[in-house]
Amino acid sequence: MEKTLFHIKEMDCPAEEQMVRMKLADFPAVKNLAFDLTARTVAIIHDGELERITAAINSLNFGASVTTTGAYTKALPQDNDTANKKLLWAVLIINFSMFAIGLTSGFIARSMGLVADSLDELADAFVYGLSIYAITGTLIVKKRIACISGILQLLLAIAGFVEVIRRFIGQEILPNPIIMMAISVVALIANTASLLLLNKTKGQEINIKASKIFTSNDVIVNIGVIAAGVLVLLLGSKIPDLVIGAVVFTVVLRGSISIIKLSK
Questions:
Q1: CB neighbours of 1 closer than 8 A, spacing ≥ 6?
Q2: Are 73 and 42 contacting, i.e. CB atoms less than 8 angstroms apart?
Q3: Is it the case that residue 204 has pLDDT exceeding 60?
């Protein structure tokens, strides 16, 4: 067997990682994949067919290049799938719960920042679901879930942008900054708990790393909504809420497009 390290310039989130996985799913020669999103690399243990593997990865147009390659004589790495699935289920439940709470509170408070944040939580829940299936699911199942979740996210993001524009043009009542800040603090606590839960594992599997990255981003978004609530309270303006809403909807839109590509 051989071990080849690829540097993939455009692979900076779990969606691109899943696309690489699916691209190589039908290659019997590929025995093991080890991703590092921070370094944007994937180490592939394979039994020959390097040219075909390289061509498959290059077809994604992610700016991939071979860094090193050589013989591999050790035993194949083993992943702790059961423990990883439990962790991913835990953060999925937390994210979906915060989606429901955030969406309801967003409508009550008339805050697009909260609504957008809740959809970001939903998008992450979809990614965690894909990660769970990535452990034991089949390629067909992963593609179907990716397609459904990607289309749903896309529709929600578009609807969100339309609502932001409508509220910007119209004479909307100011969002309730107290509810904005209170729910965002709850979400911040929930996401921090998720991050601490994920950090309990010493595993370096991609699904756990991806979950840590997404949860860390959620913490930043929560802080952004809290800041928007403070500005709404101090300035008496709806603009900060609409701005943070538009920013988060952009993140959800980008993620939805990546996941739809993943299902192709």
A1: 31, 45, 46, 47, 71, 72, 73
A2: no
A3: no
